[in-house]
Specification:
mainly alpha; 58% helix; 159 residues; Four Helix Bundle (Hemerythrin (Met), subunit A); globular; single chain
């Protein structure tokens, strides 16, 4: 039981993403609307595209973990917004709020001691909560790094 709690704490720390690099909150904070849809030269994604991709992928991983009836978006198009720019000034904030809510929901699944982190999730092909939480944390970390780089190249990063 002691090891189980330690594992949960490590995974929750990893999901929070504030360890060795900038976390989600710092990375999305105060992003100017006029730069949200800009792609730096020779890079394929705008800040908006990266944020929305992270939100959609995280939502998909969460729903896959907790809902046997969940249908994932079509890969890869369903995991990216159609346009490089958000539809309006509220969209960035809405995406950030939804990302936070889904991350909190995944953290709650991990923190719930009634959930066996290593047991296969019944409706998956042998995948566990631990695997899904680690995939989510890894994916978020990768794209947060990209978002920091894009913000730096756009002159919108203050560290």
């Amino acid at each position: 039981m002691k090891h189980d709690n330690a594992l949960r704490e490590h995974v929750l720390y990893l999901l929070d993403g504030e360890g060795a690099h900038a976390g989600f909150e710092k990375t999305v904070k105060a992003m100017p609307f006029e730069l949200q849809g800009k792609r730096p030269a020779n890079l394929p994604h705008s800040p908006w595209e990266l944020l929305e991709h992270m939100r959609i992928a995280q939502w998909d991983i969460l729903e896959y973990t907790r809902d046997a009836a969940h249908a994932s978006p079509k890969f890869p198009d369903g995991y990216w917004p159609k346009d490089p720019a958000p539809p309006d000034e509220r969209a960035w904030h809405k995406s950030v709020q939804e990302f936070r809510a889904d991350l909190k929901a995944m953290a709650a699944i991990v923190a719930d001691e009634s959930n066996d982190l290593l047991a296969p999730i019944p409706h998956t092909e042998g995948k566990s909560i631990l695997r899904e939480a680690l995939v989510l944390a890894d994916h978020n970390s990768y794209h947060l790094g990209q978002l920091v780089l894009v913000r730096r190249l756009l002159g919108a990063w203050n560290d």
